[in-house]
């Protein structure tokens, strides 16, 4: 059982969507937060608006440059205990495999995969020394089931789910919990910020994302999964949340559905 109150929690992607909802709920629950995303000013405004603002701090990092982000975080957190790391920052994709520039695949891997590996390497030595800790990554149902227009995103999310499985095996002897979160559709900026074939943002929402669960519901589910030390938690409703189970028992059905659906 992982407690939240008075824990130091490093949260990435805190400026928007699921991360913003997590920041609010974790601060309400009495955590001391290290807030990460790219823009320092935006994070500082968030920090000041949170309950117990003096307990929280800001650490702006660009996870599309994992080596630079890792070095900056190592320096900034050298003397800081981290009880829980929540790797939530991420970027999605809306483009066909046939058209997508190789640089877009690399960018998705940098942020959604290498960014996670880089920050985990900052906290792992601390957690091993502490004899406890919890590493959480917000992956996706797309890390279990592929569908159209997401070949790079799904590739990065499948990779991160596999990496987290290995990490769980290696961290067990150190009393470090490892949790992968697999959200279905959640109504955030994810589709608006999704990369297209040329690397430009899509700039508009998708109907299925608009009809997804709220960021608040998703954040509440993530906190429950952390508290219960779940290895993996699917959070969502409808087909997007059922997809991993359907794929396991009815793979042919899932292949037919994904070939038919436009996104
Ligand atoms: N919304 C969904 O339907 C959905 C479904 C499954 C998984 N997810 C995952 O949930 C996580 C949060 O996404 P969201 O839905 O809140 O989307 P969002 O676009 O609203 O938020 C993404 C967050 O990641 C940060 N980020 C993006 N690129 C970054 C970079 N280079 N460096 C540092 N921070 C960066 C953004 O600043 C923002 O805070 C992502 O990992 C996403 O893949 C979302």
What does this structure look like?
One of its GO terms (cellular component) is membrane. This protein has nine helices and nine strands. It is of the alpha/beta class and 263 residues long. The strands form two sheets. Strands 3-2-1-4-5-6-9 form a seven-stranded parallel β-sheet, with helices on both faces. Strand 5 (133-138), helix 5 and strand 6 form a beta-alpha-beta unit. Helix 1 crosses helix 7 and helix 4 (102-130) runs parallel beside helix 5. Nicotinamide-adenine-dinucleotide binds at residues 13, 15-19, 37-38, 61-64, 88-92, 111, 138, 140, 183, 185-186, 188-190, 193, 209, 212. Nicotinamide-adenine-dinucleotide (NAD) is lined by residues 13, 15-19, 37-38, 61-64, 88-92, 111, 138, 140, 183, 185-186, 188-190, 193, 209, 212.
SSE diagram, text form:
Layout: E1 8-12, H1 17-28, E2 32-36, H2 40-49, E3 57-58, H3 66-76, E4 84-87, H4 102-130, E5 133-138, H5 151-171, E6 176-183, E7 186-187, H6 207-210, E8 213-214, H7 215-227, E9 232-235, H8 238-249, H9 251-260
Parallel strand pairs: 1-2, 1-4, 2-3, 4-5, 5-6, 6-9, 7-8
The protein binds nicotinamide-adenine-dinucleotide (NAD).
**What is the number of helical segments per DSSP (H or I, 4+ residues)?**
9
> How far from one another are the termini?
37 Å
What would CATH call the homologous superfamily? NAD(P)-binding Rossmann-like Domain
What low-confidence regions span 5 or more consecutive residues with pLDDT below 50?
A: none
Roughly what fraction of the amino acids lie in strands? 5-15%
What's the total count of β strands?
9
Q: From N to C, what is the helix and strand string?
A: EHEHEHEHEHEEHEHEHH
CATH class: Alpha Beta
What summary fits the major beta sheet?
A: 7 strands, parallel
User: What is the share of helical residues?
Assistant: 40-55%
Globally, the shape reads: globular
> If you average the pLDDT, what whole number results?
97
- What's the CATH architecture name? 3-Layer(aba) Sandwich
Fill in the CATH topology: Rossmann fold
Largest beta sheet: strand ordering: 3-2-1-4-5-6-9
Number of domains: 1
Hetero groups bound?
Answer: nicotinamide-adenine-dinucleotide
Q: Name the structural class.
A: alpha/beta
- Radius of gyration over alpha carbons? 18 Å
